[in-house]
Design goal:
Layout lengths: L2 E5 L3 H13 L5 E6 L10 E4 L2 E4 L8 H10 L10 E3 L2 E7 L6 E4 L2 H12 L1 H26 L6 H8 L4 H6 L6 H5 L6 H8 L18 H7 L3 E3 L4 H13 L3 E4 L2 E7 L2 E7 L4 E3 L2 E4 L11 E2 L16 E9 L1 E2 L6 E5 L3 H9 L10 E5 L13 E9 L10 H17 L3 E2 L6 E4 L1 H7 L17 H4 L10 E3 L10 H19 L3
Parallel strand pairs: 1-2, 1-13, 2-9, 6-17, 10-14, 13-22
Antiparallel strand pairs: 3-4, 5-8, 6-7, 10-11, 11-12, 15-19, 15-21, 16-20, 17-18, 18-19
Helix pairs in contact: 1-10, 1-15, 2-15, 3-4, 4-9
Length: 497
């Protein structure tokens, strides 16, 4: 009897469980092990009073990834997870300006709003930007994003050697910030679209212009998940269970290796579990020699200088006033270069940060669901969580900077120490060991960064990798694809389960 074990019930582990569970033959076992009491990994919640507030990813895009995953498993996504497409993608403010600017799902409406807010030249630039970001996405969707990790040469072959103009249009040797200058004379729009680099934990001043494709991903559709993002993880866990996957809680302390293979898991309680095949769906940087009992290959541990962004987050359940919030809101600082210089060069959180606010009780009508708002307020920070923990006094200036910016843009949040929960890089490191608190694995800085993430296969013949630190990268749909790719690679190598 073959026993396949998946370590970690984040998006990647859940995706691998669904894919493998759908293909399992009678008598073959698949077990999904998660150390936390609930599934989701980074897709977690914190409780304040009677409210469970999303404390991880909040944006749901690339709907096709999930419908395809479920369809290939013989299931219907809508039977497990209910989503609603948003008409407004996000609301934006700039420091000291109380007049919001909205991006819409309707591209024509966005063009008209840009023309009114920023002028005709920027509106025309947005039309060109939208067309180019769509072309980049369509070029990379089946050749890179949803395919096993290629080398640069292999990617060129997949796209086609005769399509050199297409390759050059990807602009891998330009930074995203520089490329945006070709479209938007107004620096505020460069800020707005440059922020997409942070979706993969990177700086727009160092990430390649290829990341323009994220703009198309959002333009193609942003959805809200009924019950919050954590309902997505719960729905995927239920689907895996319905497919016969055994789901249990436990902390994997180490993996036993013998003769070039992984043979057993050792749990923190001392229990051992025999395994024929393993999918590891955690941060690759946790795979140090100390994690293995026996000989193991060297895994690509991400050095501190190459780590992606971490964050300082404030979950708040409190009344708000002064501004009508959408589900997704961004409050930009005045000096964007200084933010990323602080994080990646000075290794400190910026003193004047940009703030993302997810108002989880809001929708397209901006109306709150009750008397209080359930907020996730996030600022970017360096991934130093394995080196130091910030004290309450050290956190105070960033807390003040965060809510002062909101106030200067007209938003008042009636927060107290009782209705606010703070998470810092050291907390993320504790939750996701080996990461240092980096929420996206390796930063996508430079044109080779995307090829530096490992693929699913390892030198241990029955040990596979999945997750946000693995190809095709970070983010909810990308991690989901990585789990599916790892499961498919395992089935290819060992025959259909």
């Amino acid at each position: 009897m073959t026993h396949t074990i998946i370590i970690g019930a984040g998006m990647a582990g859940l995706s691998a469980a669904i894919t493998l569970g759908a293909k399992a033959k009678p008598g073959e076992r698949i077990t999904l092990i998660e150390k936390q009491p609930a599934p989701g990994g980074k897709m977690r919640t914190v409780s304040i009073g009677n409210h469970a507030i999303d404390a991880g990813p909040t944006v749901f895009t690339m709907h096709w990834v999930f419908t395809s995953l479920f369809a290939e498993a013989g299931l219907r996504f809508e039977d497990y997870v209910q989503v609603q497409q948003a008409r407004t993608l996000a609301r934006h403010f700039w420091d000291g300006d109380t007049h919001p600017f909205d991006l819409h799902a309707d591209e024509k409406k966005t063009v008209a709003q840009i023309k009114d807010y920023f002028g005709a030249q920027n509106a025309e630039g947005y039309r060109r930007f939208s067309a180019d970001s769509k072309a980049i996405f369509e070029t990379l969707k089946d050749t890179f994003i949803a395919a096993p990790r290629p080398s640069p040469v292999e990617l060129t072959r997949r796209i086609g050697f005769l399509k050199l103009p297409t390759l050059l249009a990807l602009r891998p040797f330009s930074t995203l910030w520089d490329a945006l200058g070709d479209y938007f004379p107004d620096p505020r729009l460069r800020q707005l679209f440059g922020r997409y680099a942070t979706y993969v934990g990177s700086s727009p001043f160092a990430a390649p212009a290829t990341l323009m494709l994220i703009a198309h991903v959002e333009q193609a559709g942003v959805w809200t998940v009924d019950g919050g993002m954590h309902a997505l993880a719960k729905g995927m866990e239920k689907a895996a269970h319905d497919l016969g996957v055994s789901i249990r809680r436990g902390h994997v302390q180490s993996v036993v290796t013998r003769n070039g293979r992984a043979s057993q898991l050792v749990l923190s309680e001392g229990e051992t579990i025999a395994a024929d095949r393993i999918v590891y769906a955690g941060d690759v940087s946790h795979l140090t020699p100390a994690f293995f009992d026996g000989a193991a290959p060297k895994f690509p541990i991400v050095p501190f200088k190459d780590r992606a962004l971490s964050a300082i987050t404030f979950n708040v359940s409190a009344p708000t006033s002064g501004q009508a919030l959408h589900r997704h809101n961004v409050f930009f600082s005045k000096d964007y270069p200084a933010e990323f210089d602080a994080i990646f060069k000075q290794h400190t959180a910026p003193h004047q940060p940009t703030v993302y606010v997810c108002a989880q009780s809001r929708g397209d009508d901006c109306a709150a669901a009750g008397e209080t708002d359930q907020l996730l307020c996030l600022i970017n920070a360096p991934a130093f969580g394995d080196a130091k923990r910030l004290s309450k006094e050290e956190l105070a200036p960033w807390e003040e900077a965060t809510f002062s910016l909101l106030a200067r843009c007209g938003l008042t949040v009636e927060r107290t120490s009782q209705n606010t929960h703070i998470t810092q890089p050291a907390d993320f490191e504790a939750l996701f060991p080996g990461s240092g608190g980096a929420l996206y694995g390796r930063a996508s800085h430079g044109w080779l960064a995307s090829f530096s993430r490992p693929g699913a296969r390892t030198k241990l013949k029955n040990f596979y990798l999945a997750g946000g630190s693995v190809h095709p990268g970070a983010g909810v749909p990308m991690a989901t694809l990585s789990g599916q790719l790892a499961a498919q690679q395992m089935m290819q190598d060992h025959g259909s389960i």
